[in-house]
Write a structure and sequence with these properties.
Elements lengths: L1 H9 L4 H18 L6 H18 L20 E5 L9 E5 L2 E7 L5 E5 L13 E3 L2 E3 L6 E2 L5 E3 L16 E4 L2 E4 L20 E10 L3 H8 L5 H4 L13 H11 L7 E6 L3 E8 L16 E11 L5 E9 L11 H28 L13 H14 L21 E4 H5 L9 H21 L1
Antiparallel strand pairs: 1-10, 2-3, 3-4, 5-6, 6-7, 7-8, 9-10, 11-15, 12-13, 12-16, 13-14, 14-15
Helix pairs in contact: 1-7, 2-7, 4-8
Length: about 450
C-alpha cells in the first residue's frame, strides 16, 4: 500500500511546485500593471472595486466554503477499498480533521478506532495488530474493535479505559464508517460496479485541496477538452452550442460526448463513458448505445482541512484479460496521476483565490448545472435541510429518490426552466431584443 501511495504521488505535481507556479503567475500579473501613485490609494481602490462587484453580483444562493460543515458528518463515508485492508494490517486516515485507523479483528471484520492511544496519545497506527487487536508501539497497550483497552503490560489493567470508535461496515468493495452523532441507517447500495463490469484499478490518494472543489471539478465535463488535452481528452472537439441547439430542435436530445455523470451524496461522483474502440469516443451518441464502456467512481472524503482522501475505482465491461498483465497497476496509477495533476493546478488555484476572497460561483452557466446542484445540496445540508424538504442523512439523495444523473447532452443543454444561469439570462435578453426588432420592422 505504501508503494501504491508513493506511485500515485510521483505522478502528481507537489503542492509546493504548484504554489510556486501560482506565485510566479501572480508576480508576472502584478509586474504588467502600471504602478500606482500611492500604495494606500491603490489598496482603497481595489477594496472599493471588489465591493462594487459584490453589490452588482446577483445572489444565486450558492455558498462555497473551505470548511466541511458539521452536518456533513451525518452520512456514511467510504474510507478504504476492501481489497486493501488485509489481516494484521492498519490503514490510518483522517476524516473531518480527526485521526482514525482501520484494521480487521480476529474474525476478519473491519473496525475503526481513533488513532490515538488512551495512555500517552501516541498514534496507534505506528504499532501493530496482534490477534485482531491494535497494540500501541509505546507501552504495549492493546485496543479492540470497540475501542476498549484490553491489555496494559507492566501494570494493573484499569477498567473503563477506551478510545473512540466509529460504526464500521464492509459493503460493495469498500470499508464504510459513520462519523455522525445520529443513529446510522443502512449503508446506501450505490457503490458496486454495474453487472458485467470488471474492476481494473483501485487507487487511494491524499489530495491537497478541499473536497468540495474536487467534487465540482469531477462533475464538470466542459473543462475536459481544454484541461486534459495531453491525456484522455486529446482530440476531443469543443461542443458547438449553436450546432447543439439546432440539432436538438430537429432531432431531440443530442449528446456531444457519450458520457453519463452522477453525484451520489455525500461525496461520490460516478461516470460512464461509451467507447467506439479502446481509448476513443464518438459524438452524437449516448453512452448506452455504445458497445464498450468505462465506469469510474471517485470518492472525495473530507480529510484534514484543505485535504481530500480520494478513492478512485475504474471498471470496464471489455478487455477483462488486461488486469492480468504484469505491471498494469503501475500503468493505471501513472495515468490517473497525470490526469489528476492536470486538474490539481486548477483547483489549487481556485482554493488560493477563495482564501483571498474569490467567488467560484460568481457567474455560473448552464453546463455548470451538475456542480451547481451539488453545491445547492451541500448548502441545504449545512442549513439543516435538503432540497426535497427533508432533513436527510445516511446518504439520502438530493431529490429523495436517487443520485443526480445527467448525460452529456443534458449537461450542455440550455434549460427551459430558469435556474439563474448567466447564459440563460443572455438568451432571454437576446430573445427580447429580437422581438423588439421585429415589432419595429412591423411598424
Amino acid at each position: 500500500q505504501q508503494h501504491s501511495a508513493a506511485a500515485g504521488r510521483s505522478a502528481v505535481p507537489s503542492a509546493a511546485s504548484i504554489a510556486a507556479t501560482l506565485d510566479a503567475s501572480a508576480a508576472r500579473s502584478a509586474s504588467s500593471r502600471p504602478a500606482a501613485s500611492s500604495s494606500s490609494r491603490s489598496s482603497n481602490e481595489a477594496r472599493q472595486s471588489a465591493a462594487g462587484r459584490s453589490r452588482a453580483r446577483p445572489d444565486r444562493g450558492l455558498r462555497s466554503s473551505l470548511d466541511a460543515e458539521p452536518a456533513l458528518k451525518e452520512f456514511w463515508y467510504p474510507t478504504e477499498f476492501s481489497s486493501k485492508l488485509v489481516l494484521n494490517m492498519m490503514v490510518p486516515f483522517e476524516l473531518f480533521d480527526e485521526p482514525w485507523v482501520l484494521f480487521r479483528d480476529a474474525e476478519g471484520r473491519p473496525s475503526c478506532i481513533r488513532d490515538e492511544c488512551a495512555h500517552r496519545a501516541c498514534p496507534l497506527s505506528v504499532g501493530r495488530v496482534m490477534e485482531g487487536k491494535i497494540e500501541c508501539a509505546y507501552h504495549g497497550w492493546q485496543f479492540d474493535g470497540d475501542g476498549s483497552c484490553t491489555k496494559m503490560p507492566s501494570t494493573l489493567l484499569c477498567r473503563n479505559v477506551s478510545v473512540s470508535a466509529l460504526p464500521c461496515v464492509e459493503k460493495d468493495g469498500f470499508i464504510w464508517v459513520w462519523p455522525g452523532d445520529g443513529v446510522p441507517p443502512a449503508v446506501p447500495a450505490t457503490a458496486a460496479p454495474p453487472p458485467g463490469y470488471v474492476v481494473h484499478a483501485e487507487i487511494a490518494l491524499e489530495v491537497p485541496v478541499e473536497h468540495g472543489l474536487l467534487i465540482e471539478n469531477l462533475l464538470d465535463l466542459a473543462h475536459a477538452p481544454f484541461t486534459h488535452q495531453a491525456t484522455f481528452a486529446k482530440g476531443w472537439p469543443v461542443p458547438d452550442v449553436v450546432k447543439f441547439h439546432a440539432q436538438r430542435m430537429l432531432a431531440g436530445q443530442w449528446d456531444p460526448y457519450p458520457i453519463e455523470m452522477a453525484f451520489q451524496p455525500p461525496c461520490m461522483t460516478v461516470s460512464k463513458i461509451g467507447l467506439a474502440q479502446p481509448g476513443k469516443i464518438m459524438r452524437g451518441v449516448t453512452a448506452d448505445s455504445c458497445e464498450r464502456h468505462l465506469h469510474q467512481l471517485h470518492v472525495c472524503a473530507p480529510s484534514k482541512r484543505g485535504t481530500t482522501r480520494l478513492l478512485y475505482r475504474m471498471s470496464m465491461d471489455f478487455l477483462g484479460w488486461v488486469r492480468h498483465v504484469p505491471g498494469i497497476d503501475r500503468i493505471w496509477k501513472g495515468v490517473a496521476g497525470q490526469v489528476l495533476g492536470e486538474d490539481l493546478v486548477l483547483v489549487l488555484g481556485q482554493q488560493d483565490r477563495m482564501q483571498r476572497g474569490g467567488d467560484t460561483w460568481a457567474n455560473p452557466v448552464s453546463y455548470d448545472k451538475l456542480a451547481v446542484r451539488y453545491r445547492r445540496w451541500r448548502n441545504g445540508v449545512a442549513a439543516g435541510r435538503l432540497p426535497d424538504g427533508t432533513s436527510g442523512g445516511g446518504g439520502a439523495a438530493v431529490d429523495g429518490s436517487g443520485p443526480i444523473r445527467m448525460s452529456a447532452g443534458e449537461l450542455f443543454q440550455l434549460d427551459d426552466d430558469n435556474e439563474g444561469f448567466l447564459d440563460q439570462q443572455q438568451q432571454q435578453q437576446d430573445v427580447q431584443q429580437q422581438q423588439q426588432q421585429l415589432e419595429v420592422q412591423q411598424r
